[in-house]
Amino acid sequence: MRDLAGARYPWRFRVVIALLLAMVAAIAWRIVDLHVIDHDFLKGQGDARSVRHITIPAHRGLITDRNGEPLAVSTPVATLWANPKELVLEREKWGFLADALGQPKAALSERLDANADKEFIYLVRGLTPEQGDAVMAQVKTHRIPGVYSVEEFRRFYPSGEVAAQVVGFTDVDDRGREGVELAFDSWLAGVPGKRQVLKDRRGHLIRDVQVTRNAKAGKTLALSIDLRLQYLANRELRNALVENGAKAGSLVILDVKSGEVLAMANQPTYNPNNRRNLQPAMMRNRAMIDVFEPGSTMKPFSMSAALETGRWKPTDKVEVYPGTLQIGRYTIRDVSRTEGPVLDLTGILIRSSNVGMSKVAFDIGGEAIYSLMQKVGLGQDTGLGFPGERVGNLPNYREWRKAETATLSYGYGLSVTAIQLAHAYAALANNGRSVPLTMVRADRPAEATQVIPEPVAKTMQGMLQQVIEAPNGVYRAQVPGYHVAGKSGTARKTATGAKGYAENSYRSLFAGFAPMSNPRYVAVVVIDEPSKAGYFGGLVSAPVFSKVMSGTLRLMNVPPDNLPATPQQQADAAPAAKGGRG
């Protein structure tokens, strides 16, 4: 029968055989191709079903103060996560999991049911490695499916609230969110690595294959902050707020030679290690964010502008009687009593005479004052790169009328931050040379710019020393053993949501530098709304300056330049005095 069919249809038989042979050849060729020539396809398909890449977290860079004391460190923590699709298969074990996590079973069950269609949820983050191991041991004992542990890092701040607003903090994913942590996030953040592992279809780890990319740790950042001075500033500022019943305050210490920020304290503050009850107002770095009218602390710059014109000398006198000056519908008043009808320029600073300062300003014009204030950095970015920093406002008018000229000369009509005010005073203390500010430790000072003529700056240093040491000066700012210079200020606060100034609402200010033999450090104190013992800057802020500057000079081992003469020195001076009289 087969012979007859083959004889009747010989071509069909051959076609079938040929097709079968072609199919066998194609299959054989494909097998050889996949296993010998192009084996990457099968490997890729297998890897897609079993090979996984696990992220290796990178260690965030250390933040230290200028002396290497840690301000922010990263510690390893365990994070537990779950695959709800696996967990729902064994609901009877949820109670064991809840007990191991220390969570209510009802709350955990509700979370798992709500995410039953998902493959990933966090169970708990930030456990210590020991706590994480203990939980995973319970998971293994009770054979609870779908629960996994990964290693992460958590930020810890050893200085706590002392430098909170400066250092800032990171979020739960270890990304910078405030302060230096945010400003230098790209420098501090490392590059995560990758580890290749084999897992079965249930996600269980079969084998750790290899590290395909090593994690790269973040870089260390050494700040210019001196933690010793930061503790000092924070303590004295906190005490001042309590003693004066104040709302808030800030304090800045600068190195006038290098432009480094040595301390920047703000109150109220918070603990970055425990932010559960954190109020947003506590996070404000007020020294760089809060702007205010600086009041009489601007008079030294207005006076410097007058000296720079050559039209005025420190001994020139101005009539200030009767302590008021009418300009149209505005009346300028002197708060403190003046002794006599006239004051010289130093006397204007000592008595903080608005009338005297205004008359000097009328003579030189508002443009001269504006130009000098701009040169010392007011109304401009400090270049620190701090998130949220404000530049304030330094107004410039096409036509300087008397009202605008007068108010600018004694510190109204413009706004500054505490760090800007400190930077401006640093230029005066540095013989008229302005150095760019930095929050990072400087190995060598940046190039300085001469913004005030050196003779003018040195003359102003002597005048500001008299503001502190003269019989009617701001004696509360004096520092035992040292000659210091500075100026107090009291500024009314603007009313919130309305024009004009608020009633009985003031900022008390003091800005100064020391030692006068070689000015090195500037400190600015701002106390917001003192309510107990008065509100004048010389009464409220000057004592804080005295304590902080005294501690700074001693901690930095600065030799005293105002010690009383020893008996031997007095005896040696006596013969010379006799010879002089002869």
From TrEMBL:
Residues 55-208 form the Penicillin-binding protein dimerisation domain. GO terms for biological process: cell wall organization; division septum assembly; FtsZ-dependent cytokinesis; peptidoglycan biosynthetic process; proteolysis; regulation of cell shape. Its main location: membrane. Belongs to the transpeptidase family. FtsI subfamily. It is found in: Cell inner membrane; Membrane. This is Peptidoglycan D,D-transpeptidase FtsI. GO terms for molecular function: penicillin binding; peptidoglycan glycosyltransferase activity; serine-type D-Ala-D-Ala carboxypeptidase activity. GO terms for cellular component: plasma membrane. It catalyses: Preferential cleavage: (Ac)2-L-Lys-D-Ala-|-D-Ala. Also transpeptidation of peptidyl-alanyl moieties that are N-acyl substituents of D-alanine. Catalyzes cross-linking of the peptidoglycan cell wall at the division septum. HAMAP family: FtsI_transpept (MF_02080). Pathway: Cell wall biogenesis; peptidoglycan biosynthesis. Its EC number is 3.4.16.4. Pfam families: PBP_dimer, Transpeptidase. Keywords: Carboxypeptidase, Cell cycle, Cell division, Cell inner membrane, Cell membrane, Cell shape, Cell wall biogenesis/degradation, Hydrolase, Membrane, Peptidoglycan synthesis, Protease, Septation, Transmembrane, Transmembrane helix. It comes from the Bacteria. PANTHER family: PEPTIDOGLYCAN D,D-TRANSPEPTIDASE (PTHR30627), PEPTIDOGLYCAN D,D-TRANSPEPTIDASE FTSI (PTHR30627:SF1). It comes from Pseudomonas nicosulfuronedens. It is a single-pass membrane protein. The active site is at S296 (acyl-ester intermediate). The lineage of its organism: Bacteria, Pseudomonadati, Pseudomonadota, Gammaproteobacteria, Pseudomonadales. The gene is ftsI. Residues 559-582 are annotated as: Disordered.
